[in-house]
């Protein structure tokens, strides 16, 4: 997948003795990060070479020690959308080390060939890892990535349940429900209320009302479970899959007050250190900052994204 890039060729990018000593100390995983940076600098938000000894990241921070968490070869390609933060939240909850590359969707980096080689659908998130056979595995679609991560790395079932258990299948219910219902419907509510080039009240009403209905489904489930989570007695990938969408309730024009159990769930999960770190990867999570703002303020905030979305739709229509 990568061109031949060795310590010698990396050293040629810098001439100082300190630089060569730094490169010589790199582990194989850190050398891989250097390869990625060297061949795709224009498309990546990567750590500078002089910080490579600290870049086997946890929470995408240059200040994290190399051995902070469980060592992996995971590389996450994402941005701070409701779907994008699902995976970083899970990685933090599991305490895994990982590399992260911010994909600038405003510049259509996800449409570049190197990214399409990982995810042919040209959407985030995507993830690569070294599989059990020693070869790279490419993963895309957030639910698929989350299932892979818990199947392979959550051996103690911190945020999952054993295969074959009742709770395992109930978690699957809610993950698929989010992928097929909550995400698409709230995404369309966002589109018609924030990004459409003209106001189409029917579209706004249709998708906002359906999003409210889906919030009501979650409200009923949460009210029926004494733990306050969607399934069983702990937070699982079902909760993490839904959290980023519900956190954006204000952006899509929904009032959360009629859903007290859902509101409590939203803020309860936010207090989890793993979720709170993960939601801020690769950039600060701002959805909750929209709470309390007027519709006029929110519309103004959407202007730049509106232009980009319309341009992207026009480009896709020509293909």
Automatic annotation (TrEMBL):
Q: Where is the composition biased (Basic and acidic residues)?
A: 287-297
Family designation = Belongs to the GST superfamily.
Please, which domain of life does this record's source organism belong to? Eukaryota
Q: What is this protein called?
A: Glutathione S-transferase
Identify the stretch(es) annotated as Disordered. 277-297
Domain (GST C-terminal): residue spans on this chain: 164-288
PROSITE patterns attached to this UniProt entry: GST_CTER, GST_NTER
What InterPro entries does this protein's entry cite? Glutathione-S-Trfase_C-like, Glutathione-S-Trfase_C_sf, Glutathione_S-Trfase, Glutathione_S-Trfase_N, GST_C, Thioredoxin-like_sf
- Classification via Pfam families: GST_C_3, GST_N_2
Residue ranges of domain GST N-terminal in the record: 71-157
């Amino acid at each position: 997948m990568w061109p031949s890039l060795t310590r010698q060729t990396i050293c040629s990018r810098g001439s100082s003795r300190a630089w060569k000593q730094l490169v010589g100390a790199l582990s194989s995983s850190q050398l891989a990060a250097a390869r990625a940076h060297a061949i795709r600098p224009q498309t990546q938000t990567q750590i500078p070479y002089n910080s490579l000894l600290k870049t086997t990241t946890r929470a995408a921070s240059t200040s994290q020690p190399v051995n902070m968490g469980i060592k992996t070869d995971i590389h996450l390609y994402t941005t701070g959308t409701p779907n994008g933060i699902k995976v970083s939240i899970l990685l933090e909850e599991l305490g895994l080390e990982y590399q992260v590359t911010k994909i600038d969707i405003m510049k259509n980096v996800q449409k570049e060939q190197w990214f399409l080689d990982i995810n042919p659908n040209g959407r985030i998130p995507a993830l690569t890892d070294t599989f059990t056979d020693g070869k790279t595995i490419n993963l895309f679609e957030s639910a698929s990535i989350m299932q892979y991560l818990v199947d392979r790395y959550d051996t103690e079932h911190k945020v999952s349940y054993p295969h074959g258990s009742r709770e395992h299948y109930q978690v699957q219910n809610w993950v698929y429900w989010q992928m097929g219902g909550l995400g698409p419907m709230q995404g369309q509510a966002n589109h018609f209320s924030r990004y459409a080039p003209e106001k189409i009240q029917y579209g706004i009403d249709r998708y906002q009302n359906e999003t409210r209905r889906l919030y009501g489904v979650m409200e009923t489930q949460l009210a029926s479970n004494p733990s306050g989570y969607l399934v069983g007695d702990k937070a699982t990938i079902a909760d993490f899959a839904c959290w980023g969408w519900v956190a954006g309730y204000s952006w899509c024009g929904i009032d959360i007050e009629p859903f007290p159990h859902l509101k409590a769930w939203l803020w309860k999960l936010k207090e989890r250190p793993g979720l709170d770190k993960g939601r801020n990867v690769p950039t600060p999570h701002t959805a909750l900052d929209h709470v309390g703002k007027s519709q006029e303020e929110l519309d103004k905030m959407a202007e730049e994204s509106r232009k980009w979305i319309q341009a992207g739709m026009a480009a896709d229509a020509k293909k």
